[in-house]
Amino acid sequence: MDTADQVNTTQVEDSQLGLNSSNCCSTVGTIKNGIIWKLDDSTKLVAVQVILILAYSTIILFGVIGNSLVIYVVFRFKTLRNVTNFFIVNLAVSDLLVNTLCLPFTLVYTLEVEWNLGQVLCFMLPFAQGIAVHVSTITMNIIALDRHRTIVYLMETKISKDMCAVVIVITWAVSALLASPLAIFREYETVYLSPEEPIQVCMEKWPGSSTNGSIYSISALLVQYGLPLTINCFAYIRIWNTLKNHMTYGGRNDRRQQHKKTTKMLLTMVVVFAVSWLPFHAFQLAVEFDSTVLYMKDFKLLFTMFHIVAMCSTFVNPILYGWMNNNYREAFLSVWKCYKPLTSVSRRPRVRETQKNVDKFCTDCVSTNV
């Protein structure tokens, strides 16, 4: 850094700004230990900014359309109204909140550096974003554990819809509790990079030393990624082994086949979650344990790229539903137009049942002029 940059960095360090690394939707205008990046990084190039705008806009567009469609079809068609799909709707709602509350503001702050969204949003946005991410990860665990209970332990008693509603409410309450520090320990103020250069910042403000912020950040990363991934892997490995054994020794009945297809879809969701979020969380851990990472010239660009990869998970799930689940695929198609797939003369088992479902979807579609 040149002399001017060093002076600016020293001045801002005295203001004790903090990196919002505990929030998946964190912006990178404020950096840990009070460093605001003043280097001419690549995100200031017009071509890079155009690419970032297109990338975020694409994710927002597909995320809003896909997750809204999932929510609509589950409540529109009775054949999709079961406990597992209600949990999937809860997952879609959380992803929809990330698309609407996280990505647009993250993009704006990434391009502008300074916080220009006002004091109220400074407190509310990180809190809402944190809730959405925790709801998403907790819901994935609930789905996995519910299927583990049903398939591995062969429990015929299903969770009632009332109990499902209670679990969803508790999920949001716990998520709000886990995300509350993002609103409580926060400050909105004006910082002077120089006597003639004031900027507005929205930052974490932890009591005592900055170690408290680091402890929360690492804990949040474990709760948002490490623990959910461990639980999901444990549950689905046992489910898969159980289904495999039943296929080998108990015959290939339709119910087992359906369990296997649904489990494959849900397992794919977990894999997408793990792969898409890994670079982002690994980068944040690197920041926590090695502060020199902050001095990389393209730190901001790398952070933004990893963030984009992580956010891709918010629109991939609806694609997986349509690709790997016949009921969702038929429901999606019926929303856009009354669709009946062509069937061959030699019908496979379940084709007649599938056709009946399609007919019902189309009848509902026509009756409501969708």
Automatic annotation (TrEMBL):
Q: Name one GO cellular component term.
A: plasma membrane
Q: Which GO terms describe its molecular function?
A: neuropeptide Y receptor activity
Q: Which residues form the G-protein coupled receptors family 1 profile domain?
A: 66-321
Name the residues that span the membrane.
46-75, 87-111, 117-143, 164-185, 215-237, 265-287, 299-323
Q: Does the keyword DNA repair apply?
A: no
**In the UniProt record, does the keyword Glycoprotein occur?**
yes
Coiled-coil segments, which residues?
A: none
**Which family does this protein fall into?**
Belongs to the G-protein coupled receptor 1 family.
What is the protein's given name?
Neuropeptide Y receptor type 2
Q: Which organism is it from?
A: Zoarces viviparus (Viviparous eelpout)
